[in-house]
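Question: what's this shape?

___
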Amino acid sequence: MAIYSFHLAELNPFSTIKTLYSPPTPKNTPGLQHAECLAMMTLGAPILSPKRMQLKNLVMFAAWETPEAIDEFLSSNHLGKKLSSGWHVRMNFIRRWGYISEFGNLPEVTEELHPDYPVVSVTLARMKLLQVPRFIRWGKPVEKLVRDHPGTSISMAAMRFPRTVSTFSVWNKQSDMLDMVHGRSDVPEPKRHADAMIERVRKDFHSEFTTLRFKPLAEFGSWQGRTNIIPF
C-alpha cells in the first residue's frame, strides 16, 4: 500500500515556478508514484491579493511506494533537500470521494477511524475555466468556514495555473470535519460547505474533483514556527 506525504516549504519564487511546471516524476524520483506541486494560497484571501498565489511557499502532495523512498528523496534529491527544511506529514489513505485520474485507482474506503481520531483532508480539482467565477462565488464562503473553524489545527489552499486547485486541512477530530461537511458545526452560517456541494451537483465547477481523507502517521520539521501541528 502506498504512503502519502504533504510538504510545506519556503523557496525563492523562481524555484517554485520551476517546480510547478517541472515537478518530480516516477521517472526521475525513485519510489515516487505521483506528485502534485502547487503554490500556497491563504483561504478566504481577496482574489486580487498576493496571498492568493504565494510563490515563495511551495506545497507538494505525493504518493510513494515506501517510507524509505520519502527519506531518500528528502536527503538526496535537489528539491527534496529544500523541502526538508520545511514541514511535512506522512499519512495512510482511508477514504476517497469523487474522482481524479491520477488517483483514480484508490478504493472508496480502506479503514474506519474513531470519531475522535485526528484526520487530514486533501481536495484536488481540475477547474472548468468558464466556471471559475461561479466557483469563486460559492467557494470563498467555504474557504472562510474551514479557515476559521475551531476544529482545524491548520488549513490552507494551493493552486497551479491554469486550472489546478487544492485544499489541505488537519482536523483535531474526524467528527469535527464531518460536522463541517454536513453543516452541523456550532459556527456562524454552518451550511456553507453543504450548500456549495448542492450547487456543484447542480452544475459542476470541475472537470475532475476528489476529496481524499488520510490517517496521519507522523510529522517532521516546522512550519512558520509551528511544530506539533498534528494533534496526536
